[in-house]
Amino acid sequence: MTSTVLVSGATGFVGLHTVIQLLQNGHTVRGTLRSPKRETEVRESVARHVDAGDRLSLHQCDLLSDDGWDEAISGCDYVLHVASPFIIGAPKHEDELIIPARDGALRVLKAAAKAGVKRTVMTSSVAAVSAGHDRDTTHIFTEDDWSNTDSSEIGAYEKSKTIAERAAWDFVKSDGAGMELAVINPGAILGPILNADSGTSGEIVRQLMVRAMPACPRVGFSCVDVRDVAGAHLAAMTTPDAAGKIYLRD
Prior knowledge:
- This protein is an alpha/beta fold.
- It has a single domain (4-249), classed as Rossmann fold (3-Layer(aba) Sandwich), CATH 3.40.50.
- It has helices at 13-24, 39-47, 69-73, 95-114, 156-175, 199-209, 226-238, and strands at 4-8, 28-33, 56-60, 78-81, 119-123, 180-186, 188-190, 223-225, 246-249.
- A 7-stranded parallel beta sheet has the order 3-2-1-4-5-6-9, sandwiched between helices.
- Helix 1 links the parallel strand 1 (4-8) and strand 2.
- The longest helix has 20 residues, at 95-114.
């Protein structure tokens, strides 16, 4: 059964792959972007993989503004909230990431609940699960764990993902008007880049390949293919018992 689905952050790495998979599966897609200047880029990227016909529309929306969200979501069966700030390095202040992540998630969820959306699937991260804890190799992190936002060792990105996801669960429980929520928590997302923007994840690989990093850092990632992450969003959207669960993909 096909549906009308809103994907926030359609210009992003995960968002664009998700838009394409939805269209390939026959759904009608509404994608959001911050700047209308990127509409041509999105449509050209999509056209290389699927004939969208009239099933793709793009809407200007920003995580920091209420403008446009009600109109974009009205009439949708599902919302896939993929958009969230992600940068390499530390911001000048952690609120540069926390505020748009948290407030943006709540803004999308409120509009979705108001529109009577059946289920929202939100992209979170393992950063919301395992950060800020002692590196005790005997502990296996699960869907029941949360990152420790009070730790001095936690970064702004990890804190933003944790705060945003917890705020989303709290909203759905108290004000969700019966709307269901599922959350995807992937590790480092890698895979085919579909446009000229390599994104933050792709930038990590690019810097290693062009030797922009002076050495190979001693770091490790729990990696997942972007196509699997997009597919997990579609599965969480339509699988009957997926609501209320957090999925870790690695």
